[in-house]
Amino acid sequence: MKIKYNSEIISGIVFLVAAAILWVLVPSQIDTLETSAVNAQTIPRIAIGGMFLFSLGLLLQGVFANEKKVVILNRSTFASESFRKEMRSVLYALILLAYIVLLTFVGFLISTALLVVAILLFYGVRKWYYYAIPLAMVGVVYFVFKTLLHVSLP
């Protein structure tokens, strides 16, 4: 089966929709009592506006481009090295999504420690001190923010 697609159009549309949703969600997520022009919502709005503009540019680039990528799906496609690389990227993204979910349920310390271990296992790290150093840094960051700076971590 052959599939023709233009990745610029697809990603432009996806990120335009994401920017629009984020723009609408900013007032409900960032409460502010300030009445000045610059407040707590300013920097997120600038970032989301930039995301919207760049997504629009990507969409327009895809609309005016003539070339489209062709993907042929068969058994050899799923056995190829490029497919394996793509699946590794998808697996890495799933690890990060699992971290976000765990962060809300078990908190910063445990979920970040699990993320560190999962990423190191993902890359096939075998030496114990490669695990010890980032795990110690997670503990240091937790200590600094929680004890010294009195910042509430999730």
Can you walk me through this structure?
- 73% of the residues lie in helices and 5% in strands.
- With 154 residues, it is mainly alpha-helical.
- The protein folds into 2 domains: 2-73; 78-147.
- The chain has a two-stranded antiparallel ribbon.
- The longest helix has 26 residues, at 81-106.
Features:
single chain, 154 residues, mainly alpha, two-stranded antiparallel ribbon, 73% helix
The succession of helices and strands, N to C, reads EHHEHHHH
Binned strand content: 5-15%
Order of strands across the main sheet? 1-2
How many separate domains? 2
Mean pLDDT over the full residue set? 88
Shape descriptor: flat
Task: Using the CA coordinates, give the radius of gyration.
Answer: 21 Å
The N- to C-terminal Cα distance equals 47 Å
Largest sheet: 2 strands, antiparallel
Helix content: over 70%
Topology readout:
Layout: E1 2-5, H1 7-29, H2 42-64, E2 69-72, H3 75-78, H4 81-106, H5 108-122, H6 128-148
Antiparallel strand pairs: 1-2
Gist of the model:
With 154 residues, this protein is mainly α. The protein contains six helices and two strands.
